[in-house]
Amino acid sequence: MVLLSNFCPECGNKLISPNAEICPGCGVRLRGSTEKSPGLAALCGLLFTGMGQVYNGDVSRGFLILGGAVIGGAFFIIPGLAVAIYGIYDAYTTAKRMNAGEIPYRETSALHMFLFLIAWVFGVVAFLILTLLVTAVLVAALYSL
């Protein structure tokens, strides 16, 4: 494939400038930080379940992964781990697919990542408090027998 700097590689329209960042014809981003780091996406997902999806620009999917891991982990450990591992894999492959142009690029929002992290921490704290309360009730019920 021959790349001509004055034409869009996607639609072939003539660009206003060889330094154009967005094609006026099809709107595709030509320059800028359009590369996602698959390794960083996977690392985010490893450290905070669902954060890799948020890094890739899909906040709702991040919350779905987080919710699936929490619900799966609340009942049995293995399903929660399976969802968390799938989240890491999904974040990695989504970043690779964005870089390859197979799926639309989504910007990373630092604000969304920060808000997701706050929600993640509050969720973990709430889960631990709920676990302690349930344990206390069960222990009190056992001792009252």
Q: Would you write up a description of this structure?
A:
The protein is elongated. By secondary structure, it is mostly helical. Helix 1 runs antiparallel to helix 4, helix 3 packs antiparallel against helix 4 and helix 3 packs parallel to helix 5. The mean pLDDT is 87. The chain contains five helices and no strands.
SSE layout:
Elements: H1 38-47, H2 51-55, H3 59-75, H4 77-100, H5 110-144
Write a short abstract of this structure.
With 145 residues, the chain is mainly alpha-helical. It has helices at 38-47, 51-55, 59-75, 77-100, 110-144.
Report the C-alpha radius of gyration, rounded: 22 Å
Q: Enumerate the spans where pLDDT stays under 50 for 5 or more consecutive residues.
A: none
What kind of oligomer do you see?
Answer: single chain
Strand content: under 5%
Total number of helical segments?
A: 5
Helical content class:
55-70%
- Count the E strands: 0
User: What number is the mean pLDDT?
Assistant: 87
Structural class: mainly alpha
- Tell me the series of helices and strands, N- to C-terminal: HHHHH
Report the span from N to C terminus: 78 Å
Q: What sort of overall outline do the alpha carbons produce when their principal axes are compared?
A: elongated
- What's the main sheet like? none
